[in-house]
Amino acid sequence: MRLVLLGPPGSGKGTQAARLKEYLQVPHISTGDLLRAEVAAGSPLGMQAKEVMARGDFVSDAILLGMLEDRFARPDTAGGFILDGYPRNLAQADALGVLLNKLGQPMDYAVQLEVPDELLVERIAGRAAAEGRADDTPEVVRNRLRKYNNETAPVIDYYRQHGQLTVVNGVGSLDEVLSRLIEALSPAKEVG
Prior knowledge:
- The chain is an alpha/beta fold.
- The protein has helices at residues 13-24, 31-41, 44-54, 61-72, 90-102, 117-131, 138-161, 174-191, and strands at residues 2-6, 28-30, 81-84, 109-114, 165-169.
- The chain is built from 8 helices and 5 strands.
- It has a 5-stranded parallel beta sheet with strand order 2-3-1-4-5, sandwiched between helices.
């Protein structure tokens, strides 16, 4: 099964993707982790990304897509994957669809973890306090949520229009949310 895990910062995407990969027996691909690994490995795309980041710029969609194409070519993705952190906008969603179709691995589902904004602010503030980070103040978090709603939330409509969206309540214990994810994906897992 090939799926994209969507949700705003603090929704639990990374946590649930790491847990869901055990159930689905597919790799969890985080674009942030992938980018750091490519830079650390000194790959050609990693070196391009390192130069861009050294200038303080964002890594281009073309570089990220190239890294994803390389990652999707590895044997462990033959049975699918969970993609976390990408796509973040409509252009990336279109590019991902084109890439996966080219590879003969079209996207199966996009799963949106739905969590109320105020709970997201609480979660991130709690995480920031636990990790000793001063940059995740409630106002900074609200700004990140506004950016998410402006740029990334339209990706949800993109997958809804393509009939690929599943919405899961992201509120509750880790086990409760994982159970909801498994339940939402179980009919799909049986089919393919």
